[in-house]
Amino acid sequence: MQKMKQRILIFIYAVFLSGVMVRPVEAKEFEENLYAESAVLMDADTGRILYGKEERKIRPMASTTKVMTCILALEQADGDEIVEVSSKAAAQPDVQLNMQKGEQYYLKDLLYSLMLKSHNDTAVAIAEHVGGSVEDFAVMMNEKAVQIGCTQTHFVTPNGLDAEDEGGIHSTTARDLALIMRYAIQSQDFLMIAQTTDYNFSDLSGKRTFVLHNTNALLENMEGILAGKTGFTVGAGYCYVCAVKREDRTFVIALLASGWPSHKNYKYEDTAKLVNYAFDQYHYYEVWKDTQIGAVEVKGGIPISDRLFETAYANVEVLGAMEKRRRILLREDEEVEVREELKKDLLAPMQEGEVIGNIVYTLKGDVVCRYPIVLKDSIPKKNFLWCYKKIWARYCFEY
To answer: Distance from CA of residue 85 to its chain's centroid?
Structure first.
């Protein structure tokens, strides 16, 4: 009877993932039903958060850490480099590749071990090879996180095991984790690894051969998965970060603390809810609106007409003509507001191309994009000699 119940539950879950039971949903329908304590749905194109639940709450992130480890290895080392296993790497707890001290591997093979099976010993071996030590590699991870735009992330380990140092606990936020994945999917090498279902390799001696199968269940069960990384520790619970692309839309989803044993599938249920909400609700719309700024007054300037008592005006243009038809991912009920920001009391002299303001596009108070307004003309400043010549020409030569 128990086995029958398990089979029924597995069947229901498989149908759920396949999309047969999925229907369009509103955010309000699922936001209270998400298992994850922190969640983000992000537009991969702009980095805009489309939905967030405690997205800036700092939490442990378990093996989703390995996305950053992989990024740094790809950027800082060559795949053909040889990695020698240390005693520290070999002593890491499960999940392991079970490497032995002194064994040698190609770095590229270990990256598949890292991402497909989430091996903790592999992560340390990579960190020591690339950074010299786990501690120095953690410094590199934190520096890279800042470059990506993370503001609340602190790395201590390359594998995501619960840890703490003088800088704090090993942790991130759903927002920062989504930013890291958004950055990672820009690398074709990262995508090639993350999208691999099965991979085989051997150590350099050829005595040991390994067969890997990707633990990212959605890779084969959800349309459009670009990359994904699972994670679990006692402190973090189940975590997941992924990127999904269908046609012209790409989304990133980050989940932290999405269930504890025996609820490892909650993260996939949460992902399905967010994915279907994203593709049902968000579409690209053109947001460019023509603006009529005209010419602007420049005080104390010589007018283009070169006449004594006329006011100086300069023609302007909006830069970014190639982007003027910008398309932005929006819900049907969202509207982008456009405003002009022009400097007041422009004073001569002013040069052609000088920025005097911006056309600003905002959505719910957040800036979506801005285009500089620049002068098309140079306006020199009136001086005594110019005024004297104009007065002389006007009044002296008339008599």
So the answer is: 33
pLDDT of residue 399: 42
> Where are the extended beta strands (E) located within 26-92?
38-43, 49-53, 82-84
d(C-alpha 31, C-alpha 53), whole Å: 8
Return the CA Rg of the chain. 29
Please tell me the distance from the alpha carbon of residue 189 to that of residue 212, in angstroms, as a whole number: 18
pLDDT of res. 9: 40
C-beta separation of 125 from 81 below 8 A: no
- Rounded to 10 deg, the angle between the 2-18 and 266-281 helix axes is 30
For the chain, the helix, strand and coil percentages under 3-state DSSP, each to the nearest 5: 35, 30, 40
Q: Are 308 and 391 a contacting pair, CB within 8 Å?
A: yes
pLDDT recorded at residue 373: 92
- CA–CA gap between residue 268 and residue 253 (Å, rounded): 11
Q: At what angle do helices 66-76 and 174-184 cross, to 10 degrees?
A: 30
Backbone dihedral angles phi then psi of residue 164, each to the nearest 5 degrees: -150, 145
Per-residue confidence (pLDDT) for residue 258, from 0 to 100: 93
Instruction: List, in sequence order, every beta strand (DSSP E) within the chain.
Output: 38-43, 49-53, 82-84, 104-106, 164-165, 168-169, 198-202, 209-213, 225-233, 237-246, 249-256, 282-286, 296-297, 313-314, 316-318, 327-331, 337-342, 355-363, 366-375
Dist. CA 186–CA 145, nearest whole Å: 15
253 vs 338: CA distance, rounded Å: 29
For residue 72, the surrounding DSSP H or E stretch is helix 66-76
| Segments of the chain scoring below 70 in pLDDT | 1-32, 321-325, 394-399
In 107-236, beta strands by DSSP E: 164-165, 168-169, 198-202, 209-213, 225-233
DSSP character at residue 393: I
Task: Report the alpha-carbon distance of residue 253 to residue 271 in Å, rounded.
Answer: 7
Q: String of b and e for 204-226 (b: at least 16 CB within 10 Å)?
A: eeeeeebebebebbbbebbeebb
Long-range contacts of 381-389 (CB under 8 A, 24+ apart): 381/300, 381/301, 381/302, 381/348, 381/349, 382/300, 382/301, 382/302, 382/348, 386/302, 387/308
Residues β-bridged to residue 372: 358
Q: What whole-number distance in Å separates Cα of residue 226 and Cα of residue 178?
A: 14
